[in-house]
Amino acid sequence: MDSTTNSIRQIAVGFLGMGNIGAGVWRLIGEMQDEIASREGVEFAVKKVLVRDLLKRRGAAVPKELLTTNADDVLNDPGIALVVEALGGEQPAAEYIRRALIAGKSVVTANKLALATHWKELLETAHETGSCLYFEPGVCGAIPVIRTVTDSLQANRIERLYGIINGTTNYILSQMSAKDASYADALFDAQQLGLAEPDPTADVEGGDAACKLSILSTLAFRAHVPLEGLFRRGITTITPIDVSYGRELGYAIKLLAVAKRDGNKVQARVHPTFVPLSHPLASVNGSLNAVYLYGHACGELMLYGRGAGDAPTASAVVSDMLAAARTDCSNASAAYRMTGAVEMDTDWESRYFIRLQAVDQPGVLGAIAGILGRHGVSIASMRQTTGEGRAPLLFVTHMAREKDVRAALGEIDESLATIENVIYVEEGL
Description:
By secondary structure, the protein is α/β, with parallel strands linked by helices.
């Protein structure tokens, strides 16, 4: 919009929360104010900021008169047209988002947990009230993956996607690979750098990535992929031994979010995965994120960049605020409409890295291979070392069904071998 021929349009904004993300948005709005006015003809005027503690020190110099501890000062103010939700957590954030939408306000949020757990309710409320709901910053921070899937790739049937969508776990696994660090040491390093929370459970057990995958796969497949339908496993069982053996076999270890659609069946899972070193995802290291997807018309495509942090997330929040400022909200929810239901597939096919401690005596290898074979699990490669009593035994299987692998492993008696770890291998990215 040319500000020389058009007056600047002021949009009243209410913040729900002023933590790291909220403070980042506040600073970015102030920094970009003149450029936003010049390019877009818009000025964001913050009217109220909900906080838990009026006296707490913050990362943004918010005037005291704007602060409130009463959510109604934001949600019930008819003058506030746009709400930025930056509270985090499921509740009360989800309820506040719903109330803001009912009040006819546009909402921008980075809250993947509130969205993933209340997806249908929030999207239906936005559709029924004609309100805007934007959540680009909720998945991969500054990487415009939501907009790419819902806008740029509208003419595609997206059949599969793979994501490194949690920066904390990617940093930990990168440190374990580059420095042969233990999981505990790599986690401590991440905490010292502020990349991991004091309680890292949501990250290291895959919960954060699962929320993001539920949202992203739902949009990609145009059908709701519920959070409770996802398979999830974290990285706490990964050892330097696994990382080292994987590297020798030509793989990098990643906490990978995987979603595939075949007709009416969808598989969606988050777990540690060996990725071929030749694949672009293998070189995504540190706290960076990436999403690699395949559409029937566009073919292969990868988005890569900063997926977390107050500045990258603030970038995505302000971008969504500008989208809300220029959008007819009565049609905004059309991009998020679902086209049908799907069946969650829990018996997918994959290759498997299986590490055991096997009794070092004749016949053991044949017995284990026989058990796998009886369940239709064939061995693609194997590595065996000798030792006193028990010694490491490694298998990489051909493509096999999840239930067949689990059934076979359940039959291996401890008198033959103990199962140390099972890691998925994605060759066909």
